[in-house]
Amino acid sequence: MADGLTVGEVADKTGLTAYTLRWYEQVGLLDPIPRDHAGRRRYRLRDVERLDLLTKMRATGMPVREMVRYVALVRAGTHNRRERLELLEQHRTTVLRQISELQRDLAVIDRKITRYRGHLHAEQTD
């Protein structure tokens, strides 16, 4: 990683498309990505680390505007750590609520599966 990673390498590592990587840079989620002598982007370790967090935020439903807000707070310096913490805690609460709802929904599906298994078992023993 001495020279940095290419768009393709970062796409493979993160699961994001090259288009998404360029878009993340365009909307300000990433700092400007340095380029090599041929003008190709070369992602640094810190870019990949930020992408790891951003993909987790997005996968858990954080809106891009909130992700942009978080990155802006990070760029602004350490004086706003409380605001960053509050943003992440609010998102955590949202994620926990979603998990709870999914567990409830899964329980309904599991009950239905159990019922069908019971019907099939009864049919096979008849």
Automatic annotation (TrEMBL):
PROSITE patterns: HTH_MERR_1 (PS00552), HTH_MERR_2 (PS50937). Pfam families: MerR_1. One of its GO terms (molecular function) is DNA-binding transcription factor activity. Transmembrane segments: none annotated. Keywords: DNA-binding. Residues 4-73 form the HTH merR-type domain. This is HTH merR-type domain-containing protein.
